[in-house]
Write a structure and sequence with these properties.
Elements (H helix, E strand, L loop, with lengths): L3 E3 L4 E6 L4 E7 L4 E4 L5 H15 L3 E5 L5 H4 L9 E5 H11 L2 H13 L1 H4 L9 E3 L2 E5 L4 E6 L8 E5 L4 E3 L19 H13 L4 E3 L8 H23 L25 H20 L1
Parallel strand pairs: 4-5, 5-6, 6-7, 11-12
Antiparallel strand pairs: 1-2, 2-3, 3-4, 8-9, 9-10, 10-11
The structure holds zinc ion.
Amino acid sequence: MVKLEQISESVWDYYYKELEGHISIVKLTEYLVFIDSGLYPQMAKEVREKAEECLGLPTKYLILTHHHGDHIWGNQEFEDCEIIASKAVLDLLKIRLADEKFLKIIENMINENPERYGDLRIILPTKTFINEYQIEDDNIRIQIYQTDGHSEGSSFVLIPEERVLIAGDLLFSQMFPYFGDPTADVYKWIDCYNKMLELSPKIVIPGHGDIVDKKEIISQKEYLQSCINWMTEFIKKGHKKEELEDNKDFPVHPREIPVENFEEFLNDSKLRTYDVIRREMG
Ligand SMILES: [Zn+2]
């Protein structure tokens, strides 16, 4: 059964155990705005129905924080809405849809789990922006900031009047932040954390994990900075990228929870960080 939690005067949240994921809903005077569509269509459908029934309003917009599947695989349940994302998200999704390897992964996913993904269609954003975008009515403003970092195009959402920040995967809560996407950029991610802190949110809904406050932003920023420092030293000492896989002293997240693909996530993150820092060092 779908359970929505009220987070502030205008924000509700659906939390699902499987990936410790979130779908958030903002209530404006005449309509609802969804943020991310979740892991699979049926989930999105149920959450939308529940929200519209409980809050008594139709849905007008879906905002996508980034292009990763677990945040967009419910999009087809919002085809009658304007689907908003940064332009980079649309571009990355178009590249994925033209990529045979990616399509094969989707096909396998559908075959392995037909009940969940059987009718999956990848629906693209219908409205894009660069840097910032706003939705507002007389009562409330929804501000979207594109910062990149976790992935190119990654954005977070702020409800300034209620000081609620919906981070997408720009914040993982009390767990290892995946920074292994081929478009991840640790420097931009640190800038993003600084921007979030400047906005001084009271409540932060992460992409994964428990709802937290800004202390978690500080703690994740410190962790990412320690990874940057470690990698900078590693490169300065003349080590090669090939040596990374076996290297065991890369900083460990203080509250690491063992997850299934952790080794792979960590390894991707190390390799991508190497490339980004190498590029920066010239
Ligand atoms: Zn992600």
